[in-house]
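[Solved] Which block belongs to which protein?

Original post:
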Amino acid sequence: MPRVVVFDEFGGPDVMRIVEEPAVEPAADEVSVRIEAFAVNPLDLMMRSGNSPATVPLPHARLGIEGTGVIDALGSEVAGLAIGDPVILTAIPDSHVRGSYAEYTTIPASRVIARPTGLGIREAAGIWVAYSTAYGALIEKVGMRPGDNVLITAGSGGVGRAAIQIANQIGAVPIAVTRHTAKKVDLLAAGAAAVVAIDQENVVEAVRHHTGGIGADIVLDLVMGPGQQDLLEAIRLDGILVAAGFLDSRPTPAPTSSRTIFGYRSFEHTLDPAVVRRMAAFLNAGVRLGALRPALDREFALDDIVEAHRHLEKGLHAGRKIVVTV
């Protein structure tokens, strides 16, 4: 029988265990996917530890919000897909039931896209969550355009790196923010036009310097918390801040600035088939051009899922995606 990772109580990595479960036949509008690899995301750790923003029913909860594999079975009403097609999972809002930490999962056919040609299995496993979040926030939500100066916090993280690549692909100017000067060289190599290291620089002054005194057109805030006040001051008067992360657990003060602020969560768009088609087209073009590639860290086997979570919790991945092969 297929193996799947489950947990029966909240806690550290050791609460996860691998069990065997009968294969689930797809409903009329669903497909069964044989998982080849999946990525470990911060939301997985939050769900496992009991800190998820959404309720996780116990016991026997599953994990995993992204992955890649091949179609193994089709529901009776599914068209346009065939057994053996390589696909990427685009949305698993009920990951506690059908998460990707498994050898197989069954999912609505509308929530898979064809795996782009030229994208390896490990890359495909770790590209979608970061890419779709950055694309959805910057392009669908706030309409990033060529020439826009875009300030990206947590620039060395998965979503931050994706945002840098996406901004470059459309001709915007990505300015990355990091907490550590030591990461500047890496972020410039990753495509940032400039890097602001807040351990040595004032973010407002640095952004004014890099934008000729105008300020950022868009800020992608993946951190939140008290530091958002400085980000708002770094935006030009009619600029926009889009808050799409929660890395700082401290409260975010009420804004004192008149700048426009939008909130963003990826399911806002990844459950919309029309937007997913646009995302898929953009992703295919970026992969074909070599503009979109996830930064990968270590690869783990399914049997080593506990170690994969420990690796992420310790910050040893340096913002790169941790991939588990099945």
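(Second protein starts here: sequence line, then its structure tokens.)
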Amino acid sequence: MLALAAGGCTSIGPRRLDRDQLDYARVIANSGKRQTLFNLVRLRFGEPPSFVAISQVVSGYTVQNTAQGNFQVNPSDAINSFWALLGSTQYTDRPTVTLDPITGDRFVEAYMRPFAPASVLPLIDGGIPVDMLFRLMAQSIGTLQNTHPLGGPSRSGSPEFLHLLDGLRQLQEGGALRVRVRRERDHTRVFISLDTRRNPALRGLADRTYRMLSVDPAAPEVEVVYGTLPSAARPREIPVLTRSLLNVLYAVAAEIEIAPEDVAAQRAPPTLREPGSVRPVIVIRSGPRAPSVTYAEVQVADRWYWIDDTDYQSKLTFTILELLKRIAEGGRGSAPPVLTIPTG
């Protein structure tokens, strides 16, 4: 009777779900940030990256209550009269985490294939700053070149590239930059427009941006296509040469500040900088110990590398990098794991 009462009056499921869902979400997000930071540092020193995805998390709980009572009375011999009450509770928690190394064809698809413009440009309408997004994933926009992680001290980038991104950011903040996606049978097309009717003060900036992109300023919208150089026969297209996710990681890693003795010993090349930029796209600091509070930190060899929790710009750019990683890794030929859970 006690066991039935205990089982009918309590349930651990709702309480555990409310707590564990947030706990697992926080731990998975933090481990993903640390893995990305770990691979950035490895790439900075010429080490091969390694990626492991958490493909499934199953947590099962079992609570078992037992109770037993015994009472015996012997009227002729009181010393043999006795009673007993026994009880026990057993709690079992068996979380199962499935780790999936990203290798082979899946690695090629996720990390070496350039991003499709139609896959990443909708992030702009989602509130992602356009300048941070393009600085990470675009190798060139029209004739303007982003820097290359193997470009050496000259960095081979166009000084006007950052000016273009700054103009696009102002147009986005002013509500003039719009993105439209059109899905067709065999592919998806993406268009952008610079609509300044609600903010006429941005018309001059929009015209300068169109000229920098070598497109027709009278066009209501222009299509963003994958490519390198614009064509005079197609004044309503913006060619964007996108990077692969691996190339994005290389570019970020090339700007990590490392110890001068590591450069002197030729363990890694000198830190590279974007022309005209006073800071790297993501500021990653290093030292013998990490601060007590960070956005993300990881230990590689005998040094710690971290992103300051007070550096909002670096945190936001790193978040965009994590979003690009999820876009690249998601849904590209990965088979879901098969997991058998006993119910008996």
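Accepted answer:
You had them paired correctly. Confirming on the second one: The two ends are 23 Å apart (CA to CA).
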